[in-house]
Automatic annotation (TrEMBL):
<dbReference type="InterPro" id="IPR006638">
    <property type="entry name" value="Elp3/MiaA/NifB-like_rSAM"/>
</dbReference>
<dbReference type="GO" id="GO:0019843">
    <property type="term" value="F:rRNA binding"/>
</dbReference>
<feature type="binding site">
    <location>
        <begin position="243"/>
        <end position="245"/>
    </location>
    <ligand>
        <name>S-adenosyl-L-methionine</name>
    </ligand>
</feature>
<dbReference type="InterPro" id="IPR004383">
    <property type="entry name" value="rRNA_lsu_MTrfase_RlmN/Cfr"/>
</dbReference>
<feature type="binding site">
    <location>
        <position position="131"/>
    </location>
    <ligand>
        <name>[4Fe-4S] cluster</name>
    </ligand>
</feature>
<dbReference type="GO" id="GO:0000049">
    <property type="term" value="F:tRNA binding"/>
</dbReference>
<comment type="similarity">
    <text>Belongs to the radical SAM superfamily. RlmN family.</text>
</comment>
<feature type="binding site">
    <location>
        <position position="135"/>
    </location>
    <ligand>
        <name>[4Fe-4S] cluster</name>
    </ligand>
</feature>
<feature type="active site" description="S-methylcysteine intermediate">
    <location>
        <position position="362"/>
    </location>
</feature>
<feature type="binding site">
    <location>
        <position position="319"/>
    </location>
    <ligand>
        <name>S-adenosyl-L-methionine</name>
    </ligand>
</feature>
<dbReference type="InterPro" id="IPR058240">
    <property type="entry name" value="rSAM_sf"/>
</dbReference>
<keyword id="KW-0963">Cytoplasm</keyword>
<dbReference type="Pfam" id="PF21016">
    <property type="entry name" value="RlmN_N"/>
</dbReference>
<keyword id="KW-0489">Methyltransferase</keyword>
<dbReference type="InterPro" id="IPR048641">
    <property type="entry name" value="RlmN_N"/>
</dbReference>
<dbReference type="InterPro" id="IPR013785">
    <property type="entry name" value="Aldolase_TIM"/>
</dbReference>
<dbReference type="Pfam" id="PF04055">
    <property type="entry name" value="Radical_SAM"/>
</dbReference>
Length: 372
């Protein structure tokens, strides 16, 4: 019998120990120059490499004709290694929503999603392979944590989306990634150092980074209070999104188990400190789950907690995972929840449910992809 995979069959390698290879996106510009010098090249070659990667979105050495031919391959292999291997890509919304499943060097699977709107292009990226927060309604949380991703592995997801736009793979003509949300697989604040490094690569002007406005970057958390406080002092005016999902500790202890460590009052207190320091409006993420957290009295409680604060509520119709008892709220309950929040003067919107037909919830595509 042949050991070769059948056409269309996915073959995953066994996980390998170690770390992903160093990439220039892991490094500051000064560190890139040092790395290039260690390879026996002039430091300014780091600027050229950075311009190819972040500004020109160049993917192959053959296109880097301003680099010496005898050192081009070595520089690229050492500082621009391939970190993501495409496993699967599926689209909906006439090609405007594209979900990508990637294999990392050790066989771990992560997902990212590109969503094109009339006025913007948003990339939703993963920060961990899996997640250790164990939220019972989340596909990723139920899979557990495999490992943290590196800064460059996070950035590569955005660069891949930018290259797809540049190639014309996404309908609608030329465009650039304008928004990045850390709402894919993983708890960003549990991989703090790599995530902050990625944010800096995203917002630094080219050729140091991609030059995306910090106001277009959203970092989410289930409520790791020390990390929220640390983020307040980074000088990065990104949007903080708190995945609250319940206004009362009794329910939130079940829906978001980390709440047994940091209660609702502590989490919101840290969020208000962040808003005061950065002058940025905090986003409260709230997945509406049928008969679990969608009661009007809970909307009233949430409204009282948020009233008068620099805040916006993003209600999320739950995208149910296969076999789960958790499902989206009834439309009439969703509307009633919105009305109760608005009665307290709280700004609220219901999230666009793009990607539902392509396993849009984070972790669903990875969970549905069998290893052979």
């Amino acid at each position: 019998m042949s050991d070769q995979p059948k056409p269309g069959q996915l073959t995953l390698v066994a996980p390998r120990r170690g770390k992903p290879q160093r990439h220039l996106a892991d490094l500051t510009m000064d560190e890139r120059r040092e790395a290039v010098a260690e390879l026996g090249e002039k430091p300014f070659r780091a600027d050229q490499l950075s311009r190819h990667y972040f500004a020109k979105l160049t993917g192959s050495p053959e296109q880097m004709t301003d680099l010496p031919g005898d050192s081009r391959e070595r520089l690229v292999s050492q500082l621009m290694p391939s970190l993501l291997t495409s496993v699967r890509e599926i689209t909906c919304d006439d090609g405007m929503t594209r979900k990508m499943l990637w294999k990392l060097f050790d066989g771990s699977l992560v997902e990212s999603v590109l969503m094109r709107y009339p006025d913007r292009v948003t990339m939703c990226v993963s920060s961990q392979a899996g997640c250790g927060m164990n939220c019972p309604f989340c596909a990723t949380g139920q899979a557990g944590l495999t490992r943290n991703m590196s800064t460059a592995e996070i950035v590569e997801q955005v660069v891949a989306g930018a290259r797809a736009l540049a190639r014309g793979d996404v309908p609608g003509g030329p465009a650039r990634v304008s928004n990045v949300v850390f709402m894919g697989m993983g708890e960003p604040m549990a991989n703090y150092k790599a995530v902050i490094g990625a944010v800096r690569r995203l917002v630094d002007p080219a050729p140091e980074g991609l030059g995306i406005s910090a106001r277009g970057v959203t970092v989410s958390t289930v409520g790791l209070v020390p990390a929220i406080k640390k983020l307040s002092d980074e000088g990065l005016p990104v949007t903080l999104a708190v995945s609250l999902h319940a206004p009362d500790d009794e329910l939130r202890d079940t829906l978001v188990p980390i709440n047994t460590r940091w209660k609702v009052a502590e989490v919101l207190g840290a969020a208000w400190e962040y808003a005061a320091k950065t002058k940025r409006r905090v986003s409260i993420e709230y997945a509406l789950i049928k008969d679990i957290n969608d009661q009007e009295w809970r909307a009233d409680l949430l409204g009282r907690l948020l009233k008068g604060k620099l805040v916006h509520v993003n209600l999320i119709p739950l995208n149910p995972t296969p076999g789960s008892k958790w499902t989206a709220s009834r439309p009439e309950d969703e509307r009633a929840f919105v009305r109760r929040l608005e009665s307290h003067g709280v700004a609220v919107t219901v999230r666009d449910t793009r990607g539902r037909e392509i396993d849009g919830a984070c972790g669903q595509l990875a969970a549905a992809t069998p290893a052979s």
